[in-house]
Design a protein that fits this description.
The structure is a single chain. This protein has 3 domains: 1-34; 38-68, N-terminal domain of TfIIb (Single Sheet), CATH 2.20.25; 77-145, SH3 Domains (SH3 type barrels), CATH 2.30.30. It is 23% helix and 26% strand. The protein contains 1 helix and 13 strands; from the N terminus they run H-E-E-E-E-E-E-E-E-E-E-E-E-E. The strands form 5 sheets. It has a 3-stranded antiparallel beta sheet with strand order 1-2-3, with no helix packed on it. Strands 9-6-13 form a 3-stranded antiparallel beta sheet, with no helix packed on it. A 3-stranded antiparallel beta sheet has the order 10-11-12, with no helix packed on it. Strand 4 (78-79) and strand 5 (85-86) form a beta hairpin. The chain starts with a helix and ends with a strand. The protein binds zinc ion. The site of zinc ion has 8 residues, from loops.
């Protein structure tokens, strides 16, 4: 009685192994598809963008930009020269001498600025410097202290 059932069971096992194998292949195809769903290059519109760590890179015009954060995050993300995310109230250090437009003042490299405020625009950091007053900086010239 038992011996009769052996062969069909073995066949069944082989079949389901194959089924698992083909399902695995299917999954990796799906993964490839979702990986190519990156945004087009904002500079030239190329669709051949790829990810390099947390940056997106365009192979056609060599433009690099920060990948957009998850859909649930509102507003722009501000990053310092090292790619760290900046937030209102952070303390930052200036990484190069910055001439202040319309004045003879220079913000020296290494200057620490407390309690920054992030704003939209070309100069995306608002802050106050003792003896100079309120100024605007570019986040690419600072690092989080
Ligand atoms: Zn491009």
């Amino acid at each position: 009685m038992f011996t009769d059932g052996d062969l069909p069971i073995q066949l069944k096992t082989i079949t389901s192994l194959n089924a698992i194998k083909s399902r695995t292949n299917f999954n990796s195809e799906q993964k490839d598809k979702s990986m190519s769903a990156l945004p087009n290059c904002p500079e030239c519109g190329s669709e051949y963008t790829y990810e390099d760590r947390d940056l997106l890179v365009c192979p056609e015009c060599a433009h690099e930009w920060v990948a957009a954060a998850g859909d649930d995050q509102e507003g722009p993300v501000y990053r310092d020269a090292n790619g760290n995310i900046l937030q209102d109230g952070d303390t930052i250090t200036v990484i190069k001498d910055l001439k202040i437009k319309g004045t003879s003042s220079v913000v020296k490299v290494g200057t620490k600025l407390r309690n920054i405020r992030l704003v939209e625009g070309d100069h995306d950091i608002d802050c106050k410097i003792d003896g100079i007053g309120p100024i605007k900086l570019k986040s690419e010239f600072v690092k989080k202290a």
